[in-house]
From TrEMBL:
It catalyses: Hydrolyzes free adenine bases from 7,8-dihydro-8-oxoguanine:adenine mismatched double-stranded DNA, leaving an apurinic site. Adenine glycosylase active on G-A mispairs. MutY also corrects error-prone DNA synthesis past GO lesions which are due to the oxidatively damaged form of guanine: 7,8-dihydro-8-oxoguanine (8-oxo-dGTP). Its cofactor is [4Fe-4S] cluster. It comes from the Bacteria. Transmembrane segments: none annotated. Keywords: 4Fe-4S, DNA damage, DNA repair, Glycosidase, Hydrolase, Iron, Iron-sulfur, Metal-binding. The lineage of its organism: Bacteria, Pseudomonadati, Bacteroidota, Flavobacteriia, Flavobacteriales. This is Adenine DNA glycosylase. Belongs to the Nth/MutY family. Coiled coil: none annotated. Its EC number is 3.2.2.31.
């Protein structure tokens, strides 16, 4: 098809030299694809290199502890990706002898792998003719075909998968899929796309109808939840502190943080100091100081966290305390890491 020829020709002339494009090793392709979900290439590449050095094979990744994996992942966000990555590595190593499934349907059975990732691995590693649809592809197709169907609706997911499949170069699915994603990243960008030099500017319906800025259409997210976190930063005379691991299905599962008191609203210092839960956590006669009057605002996709840190000088010894110097070994949310980067215990 003319579209695929033009696209692949553009790709060969304009593609970025990325490390995972120099291999068809499914382990490395899988790792890169998981990392680049909801992450820019520039942000994800240093993590990719660190993981490859730490875990050269799927067996090495499987043998690591979850804490090691989360620590290396720290800062990339969406930590369920890291937990699923680790679980899948263990499954592939222990149950499949270290060999990834060699088909789209087989890959779909692995934890953390959906349509997009299965299509990418299957086409890039095994030349299976399955179309990839990611954020970049949605944008290119919505503009090229002038489609206002919301890309995050069930109808849109089906429509754009069908369009990508129709355009797919079945003789060269690997190059086609990578070309279409790269085209969206470099040429048909979200803002200020390079329409003047676009090889499809004579056939793009959005450009013809002056609708580039309107497409693609995306349904608005639900209401943002606002949460108020009060972290208790224990700083004992022995230079020890307390860290707790987050459990359950909420945010940051598996990561560590200081003891937390969450309130329904932001309290004044006097109101917080009178909280019964605070007294129970810090013990009698503890000295409590507010570190930051203005909350640190940490924005996630569906919630905004307003965090304040309280420095605690306890009068009792906690059995599960750890040396402050050891905190760096624990995987923590970016919110906590940013605090640690500026906090100097000696000042308190």
């Amino acid at each position: 098809m003319e579209f695929s020829k033009i696209l692949i020709n553009w790709y060969l002339q304009n593609k970025r030299e990325l490390p995972w494009r120099k291999t068809n090793d499914p382990f490395k392709i899988w790792l890169s694809e998981i990392m680049l979900q909801q992450t820019r290439v520039e942000q994800g590449m240093p993590y990719y290199f660190r993981f490859i050095v730490a875990f050269p094979t799927v067996f090495d990744l499987a043998a690591a502890s979850q804490q090691e994996v989360l620590k290396l992942w720290q800062g990339l966000g969406y930590y369920s990706r890291a937990r699923n990555l680790h679980d899948t590595a263990k499954y592939v190593s222990n149950e499949l002898g270290g060999k990834f499934p060699d088909s789209y349907k087989g890959l779909l059975k692995l934890k953390g792998i959906g349509d997009y990732t299965a299509s990418a691995i299957a086409s890039i590693c095994y030349d299976e003719p399955v179309a990839v649809v990611d954020g970049n592809v949605y944008r290119v197709l919505a503009r090229y075909f002038g489609s206002a169907t919301p890309i995050n609706s069930s109808e849109g997911i089906k429509e754009f998968k069908a369009l990508a499949t129709e355009l797919l170069d079945r003789d060269n699915p690997s190059a086609f899929n990578q070309a279409l994603m790269e085209f969206g990243a470099l040429q048909c960008k979200p803002k200020n796309p390079l329409c003047v030099t676009c090889p499809f500017n004579n056939s793009c319906l959005a450009l013809r109808d002056n609708r580039i800025s309107e497409l693609p259409v995306k349904l608005k997210k639900g209401k943002i939840r606002h949460r108020y976190f009060n972290y208790l930063v224990f700083n004992s005379e022995e230079n020890t502190t307390l860290l707790h691991q987050r459990k359950g299905k909420g945010i940051w599962n598996g990561l560590y943080e200081f003891p937390l008191i969450e309130t329904e609203k932001q309290l004044t210092a006097a109101e917080f100091l009178s909280e019964e839960e605070l007294q129970q956590k810090v013990g009698a006669n503890a000295v409590v100081r507010l570190y930051n009057e203005k909350p640190v605002v940490h924005k996630l996709s569906h919630q905004h966290i307003y965090a304040r840190f309280w420095i605690i000088e306890p009068q009792k010894v906690f059995e599960n305390a750890i040396p402050i110097s050891k905190i760096a070994k624990y995987p923590v949310p970016v919110l906590i890491q940013n605090f640690l980067n500026e906090y100097e215990p000696a000042d308190y």
